[in-house]
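pasting input
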Amino acid sequence: MNFLTTFYAIFFKEALHIKRDPVTLVVTIAIPIFQLIVFGYAIDMEVKNIPTAVCDADKGSGSRELISALVNTGYFDIKESVASEADLRDAIVAGRARVGIHIPPGFTAGGVNGRGASFQALVDGSDSSVAMQAVNVVNSVGLMQSVGKFGKADIEKLPVDARPRVLFNPDLKSANFFVPGLVGLIMQIVTVFLTAFAVVREKENGTIETLLATPLSRGGLMLGKLLPYAFVGFFEICVVLTLMRFVFGVRVNGDVGLLLLMCFVFLFTALGLGLLISTVAKNQAQAMQMALLVMLPSVLLSGFVFPRESMPAIIYYFSFLIPLTYFIEILRGIILRGADLMSLWSQSLALAVYGAAILSVSALRFSKKLS
Amino acid sequence: MSAIIQLEKLTRKFGSMTAVKDVSFGVEKGSIFGFLGPNGSGKSTVIRMLCGLLEPTSGDAWLDGASVREDSERIKRNIGYMSQSFSLYRDLTVEENLAFYGRIYGLGRERLRKRVAESMEMSGIASKRKQLSGTLSGGWKQRLALACSMLHEPGIIFLDEPTAGIDPVARRDLWELLFRLSKDGVTLFVTTHYMDEAERCTHIGYIFLSELMVCGKPAELKRLPEVTPAGTVWLEATSDRITQALGLMKKAEGVLDATIFGESLHIRAAAEFGEREASLALAAGGVSLESFRVVKPSLEDVFVSLTRERLNARGAA
C-alpha cells in the first residue's frame, strides 16, 4: 500500500521533471545518436593509402616492377620521389610520408644474376597500426616478388595454399564490430547519468530532507526514480538499434526478443549503478565525476575498442568487474554471430547476478536517515 | 502527561562533536512552541531528530506517545515538516507540488482534491496555482511550503526558521496562518531568530551551546531571577542625543549594562539608580534626559543575560 502510493507519487513527479526539462531529454537522446554516427563512421581500423616516398637509385625494370607491385596493393600512395636516402628520412620526419622505399643501385641486376636483390622500407612507427600494416604488406610483396623470380613468370599455384575465411563479418567492416558495442556503451551513459542526477538533484536542492520526513517507502521511492529513466533508456535502445540496422546495415542475426530481454537486464544494472553513485555523491559535480570514473574503464577495458585477450593479465581479470564487458559479448554474440541463450548463458548469468547485486547494494545504502 | 512532544535527555553527537546534549522538555498540545538559540546551537538537529530524519545518539523523544527511536515511521504520518531552506520542486507548479505531497501521504483522489483546494484557500495561494514554484517570491514560497506540510492534516508541524529572509508583510501573513492552525488544535514547533516572533509564541525553549537553558512561557522567562538578580532593575530612557547618551550611561556608576533599543536606551542597573542619577550622568556630558521608566526585561534581555551568565560560568570553570 505504502509502496504503491510512494511509487505512484514519485513516478508521476519524475515524469513531470522530464517533461519540464525537454532540453535535457532531447540532449540525452540526441547525444547517443550523434555518438553512434561519429563512432560508426569515423572509427575505421582499416589502413589504406599510406603516404609513401620512394628513392629509386636503380631505375631499372626490376625496380619499376617492384614499385608498381607495391602501389597495386592499394596500401601505398606514392607522394614523392626523392634522390637520396637522407631525403627519405626527411620526408618521414616531416610527416609527408609514413613509409620510405629505398631501392639501391643494382637491384634489377641482382635479381637477374641470382646474387640477390634487396630493397629497404623505412616505416614510421609512431602509429602502430599503420606501421604493422605497412610491414606486413611490404613483406608479402617481397615474398611474391621472390617467388616470381624462382618461377621465372607469374606462377599460378603456390605449393602451400592458405585460405582464410572470415565468418559473420566477411567484409571485415569496422561498423559491424563497433556498432553493437556502441549500443551497450550508449545505454550505460544515458541511464547512469540520468539516474545519478535524478537522485543527487534532490540532495542538492534540499528536497530530500522534506521527502524523508514523510512516511514514504524506500522501495517505492527507488522504483519510482528508476522506472521513468528505464523507459527513456529503452526508447533510446530502440532508436539506436534501428539506426544500426538501417544506417549501418548491421543485421541482427540472432533473436531480436532475446536481444531486447538482455538489453533490459543490462538497463537495470546501469540504473543500479546510477543509483549507487547517487548514494555516495553529495552534488551533481561529484556525481558527474564518479560517472566518468565508471565510464572510462567501460570504454577502454570492456572490449569495446581493444580486444580483451591481448590485455595484461591483471587488466584482463579486472575487466570482468565491468558489467559492460558481459553485455558487449552478449550483444556481439546475438547481433553478429546469431548466438542463442544457451551459448551465452555464462555471460547472461553474470550480467543478471551483477545487476541484482548492484541494485541491492544501492538499495541498502539508500538510507532514510540523513547522515 | 499532557505534553504532546516530550524530550528525555535527547543527545546527538557527530563524531566527537556534541550537537545536542541531554535536552529534556515538553510541549503542550495546541501550543506554539518557539525554539530559540544562536546559529549552530543545535536547533535544527533537535527538529531533525524529532522528525525521524536523524537517529538520536542517546536519550529519546515521544511524539503523541510514539518514540522517535522505535516508531519514527508512525510519527512521520502525523507530522508536517518545513525545512530551513526552500525544499520544494522548483520546476513543478504550486498545485503539482501540493498534489505530490498529498500522494506521498497516500491521500485518495477525492480527499487529495479537497485538501489541495483547502490548503490553497487557507494559505491564499490559490491565485498562483499554475505558477512554477521556483518563480514565486520568498514569502509565497514559504506559504506554499507550509501548505505542503499541513496537507495531510498533521497534529504537529515543525517549522525551521519559516520566516528567514522574507519581508515583514509576508512574515505577518505567515504568522496569522500559524495562529489559525494553532486555534484548530495543531501544535506548532517553530525556530526563529526574530524576538518579536518569539514574543508571539505561547511557550519558549532556549538552547545554547547544545544545551537547553530555559523553557517556559515568555512571561515566566522574564521573571527569572537570573535575568533580574536581586537589587537590579531594567530601565528605559530616551534622550535627544542617543549615541552620546549610551556612552555616558555605560560609564555611570550603578549601571551594569546599556544598549540602544530602537530610539531608546535599554539599561540594566542597580535598584538605587533612579531618574535623578540618570539625569545627572547625562548632564555631565551636556546631554538631556527626555524620559525615564522602569520596564520589564524583553525576551532579548532574557537571552542575552542567560547567555552571558553561561559564558561567564564557563570562563570561571
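fyi The mean pLDDT of chain A is 86.
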